[in-house]
Amino acid sequence: MKFKPNQTRTYDGEGFKQRAACLCFRNEREDEVLLVSSSRHPDQWIVPGGGMEPEEEPCGAAVREVYEEAGVKGNLGRLLGVFEHNQDRKHRTYVYVLTVTETLEAWEDSVNIGRKREWFPVEEAIKILQSHKPVHAEYLRHLQLSCSSSNNGNILLPPPPPNDNAARAAACR
User: Fold this and answer.
1) What is the CA angle 171-139-172, rounded to 5?
2) Angle, vertex CA 67, rays to CA 64 and CA 68, nearest 5
3) 14 an active-site residue?
4) What is the pTM of this model?
5) pLDDT tens, 33-63?
6) Where is the segment annotated Disordered (predicted)?
7) Catalytic residue among 30, 53, 56, 68
């Protein structure tokens, strides 16, 4: 674990920073996704997510991060997949689908750092994310693949990371 001001970072046995995120959708059609402005680059959009806290399950971290960063609550759906970012920072991110049921007028990051949020059609969101957050665009591409009729309705998941236990997945159901 590394310590940042007001935050504890957790790492798995392979040295990957453990993260969680949600693709937040306006409804169950999953055709409009909510993006938030980046804290580092306020003119750029990102998928809400962040680091897991010690002893926190991925699904709990994903819901907490969405509440803090996007000011929304909703029904947590399926685990879309576990994505690894190997380039400069070793991240392993659990990405869930969430259908938004409540939108707060003011939320933690809007008040503290002026974060904004906006709904985008999925195709537009992929184009927006591709230039500066290609891994976030990949989440949405994976969603499209998992929902396509060519896979007979099966969800395509990357293999779980080593040392991942089934209890984590069960705890989120």
Assistant:
1) 5
2) 85
3) no
4) 0.81
5) 999 999 999 999 999 999 999 999 999 999 9
6) 153-173
7) 68
